[in-house]
histidine kinase
Amino acid sequence: MPKIRLGKGLAAAMALAVIAAVSLVVWLVALEAGKRRALAALDQELSVLARAVEGGIERFRYLPAIVARDRRILDALASPESGSVAAANAYLKAVRKDSHADELFVMALDGDTIAASNHDEPTSFMGQNYRFRPYFQDALATGTGRYYAVGATTGIPGYFLSSAIRDGERVIGVAIVKVDMGGMEQSWIDGRSILGVADADGVIFLTGHAPWKYRPLHALSDEALSDIAVTRKYDGVDLGTASPIFPGTTALPETARVEGEDARRLVRQVRIEPDGWRLLGFASLAPIHASALLMALLAALAGMLVAGAALYMLQRRQLISAKLHAHAELERRVDERTVELNREIEDRRRAEDELREAQASLIQAAKLAALGRMSAAIVHEVSQPLAAMENTLASTGLLASRGESEAVAGKVRAARDLVRRIQRTVKLLKSFARNEPARLEPVDADKAMAIALELAAPRAADDGTAMTLRPPVQPAMVMANATRLEQVILNLIVNALDAVRNMPDAKVELWTETEDDAVRLFVRDNGSGIPEHLRDRIAEPFFTTKVTGEGLGLGLSISRAILDEFGGRMDFETGTGGGCTFRIILPAIGQQSRREAAE
Ligand code: ADP
């Protein structure tokens, strides 16, 4: 049905739209949540790392002041030419070893290095002058100094912590500890986030991301550039030509694209005091995008599963209701057909009843027709004794007047005989013509033969036909209806009489035979016979060879129908010298039935 298909298509389209919308919302929410989580994680990572950076420096905070108080250092500053320098050098080397500081050294008031922990190494600071460094100048001015810079001698960057060396109240030199921060930087190289420490000017000097090393976040002012040049902070690096990481802005963006990467990164920073540094973290958004996409896909998948299940259920419901519908339709048709069949059965029954009735009235008609055809003979049969009786009564009167009482008595007896003869004929006709229902009962076939013969006798006598019934040899009991069986036999006799009419030496012979389980009744004539080409036609209803009015052509067909009712049948043979023998075959009944019939 197109209506249902349209409904399904619409439902599927709507389901897809809902799934797409839900997936989009899931994607956005997951992205936002992912960002928030990443920001929180980044903030936490940065604050931990900032503390680590601070701690890494603060560890050495008091070391220069302690070194400044050592006698060997004071002695070396007091008399640098003496052997005290060697003692100071040995002391500094030992302290470096114990404290894991990068280097320790002592500068005189003119800025010359007079003792150093690396005094015996190729990159020794001995004799070098670092007067230009702020940590030296600050220590002279304020007593302490601190500064990050790339080593002017070694080229190795480090954090310089300094302390003034005093002899009494008088400042006589500066003690410096250089802290190496390279180890920390190394550990950042393969981290998930890109990390970097920028100084107060915004120059990144520590980072795990090599391309950013010694690059300013934003364009540097001339003042800052000249300051960096004077202090030789980043010795050997040309910051004037280094391109800023975020050109054209002084603010830090929330997200940034790192060169060589597709996804943007979240940007956060924390301050590291006291130098005005900033620890920057760039967390990748790629995993957040990936997981948001995954969530959206999962949502879409779940939505499709739910929609699929819903569609399946919908289809199933439709299928079931269609099946129920079909079932109901089938039942309805079966009911209709049952009603039709009942009606047909009823019609058929009625038709059969009508047929039976028609057949019964046909049988009756045929019977009456047979009687009608014999009516002349029957009238003769009645009128003849009546005439005789008239004569007898006339002569009785005469004899009575003469007073011959004995002769009168004889005449009265004769008259009574004549009346009885008439009575018998009338009774025979009455019982034959009776239209009674065909009830089956044991019937003596010989007796039926005798009655039929008697009925036809007047006609035979009229025609001058000799009609004989052979005496029975064996009992011939059959299950039949006496009147109807007589009707069948009479039919055969009338046909036989018709066939032998006007024949010289006309004969009709009747007899019965009982053999095994069958009783056979024979009616033979020496008449015209039946031509071979008519053999199959004679029993057809209304087939007759007789002149109009003499025969209806129903005798044989009705006889067949009657014999069918008794479970019997009929056939005939044509004799070689003409003539016909009709044979009725009926099932014989047993001894008991015979006894009952006798009783
Ligand atoms: P009807 O006697 O009214 O013609 P039947 O059905 O009794 O009708 O017989 C049909 C025909 O069969 C008869 O017209 C006759 O031609 C033929 N027939 C029946 N019995 C005989 C017979 N014994 N000898 C010759 N022909 C016969």
About this structure: The chain has 14 helices and 18 strands. The two ends are 81 Å apart (CA to CA). The longest strand covers residues 157-167. Residues 286-373 form the longest helix (88 residues).
